[in-house]
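Rotation project, supervised by the postdoc (A.L.). Task for the rotation student: set up a whole-complex structure prediction and record inputs and outputs verbatim in this book. Inputs entered:
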Amino acid sequence: MKKLLVFLFVLYTGMLSAYQVNVRLFSVMKVSGVTVSVYSGQYTLWADHKHLNDTLANGVIQLIAINDSIEIRVPGDTLGRCAWFKLEPVGMNASFRIKPTNINTGTRTYDDALRVNAKGGLLQTVNTADIEEYVGGVVESESGGNTVKEFYKVQSILCRTYALNHLYRHTLEGFDLCDGVHCQVYRSRTSQQHIHDAVFETEGLVLVDRNLSLITAAFHSNCGGQTANSEDVWSLSLPYLRSVPDSFCLHMPHARWTRKIAREDWLSYLSLKHKYPVNDSASCYQALNFSQGSRSVYFTHGNLRIPLKTIRSDWQLRSAYFSIEEQKDSVVFRGRGYGHGVGLCQEGAIRMARMQWSYQNIIPYYFKGVSIIHLSKLDFFREE
Ligand SMILES: [Zn+2]
Ligand SMILES: [Zn+2]
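Outputs recorded:
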């Protein structure tokens, strides 16, 4: 981590806004061709170090993978093939639109540069964007576009921290981050002015722990009234990811859920997967009537301990914070919250922001003992 911070410090010295991330687009899809057009600003076009005619940027360009090369097409003409293609912005406020030709994803818009390679008949499309523009796109993709700016400031700081903490996940594949849930969802640049403002009003701010390491900036939709300890969901215990009570999210849209499962399906699941003694009447009753007041970690019976997160994953439940009650031939799961429950509860934070809490107060509520710091200050404080 020390090396990473030194590296980031060098990159950020006096020129934070110049820092860029390389994000693979359509990363979980098999894209064999894309249609690209300039949305705003000016671009130069490159194919294998060759500068293409700038007027091409005024129209629509199609890039089709042919084995390991790219065929460049414009309406009514094929311009030739290349190993790589690049849209390079000239000046500020340049953005482009991109749409796969073989998958129906809709058109997406991104800021800054695009680089395209081909391998085995598939394209790899990488957007090189200013990190702040990237964070804006992630904030909108991860939290929607209809809430207050102070919440978006919180989310911006979290998404920026998360991104910088995971920059080397895809280095061997030739980019920094993917655009899926594996890194953070990045469906397009933000189209919302108040998200853009929130990102730039918190520009460069990140969260660090007591050792000045970037934190694992986890977040989820709704905790159901109590967040979870990190070690109860993942294996790692982190001092700043502690369970806290949260009454702010209790009346928000994802506070509660219900799911009905056939009694026999539930019992055979317990018996077959977990060797639960369903034939014993007292044990069976316990299996059909389970209550979770404050968050538990296990569904227990004697020495048998079934992680609730396993039940959540196996039945694709919204959360592991549920109770079970018997109802004729069914069991009804009554659940609270949505997501893993670790770190920031988005709906709780939205409610706090609506109640005029500032991001400086919301963040420490969910992350214990962390500091909000500008990246350019990290090295200075570390040497103290
Ligand atoms: Zn990833
Ligand atoms: Zn909550």
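Student's summary: The first helix runs from residue 2 to 12.
Supervisor addendum: Confidence is low (pLDDT under 50) at residues 1-17.
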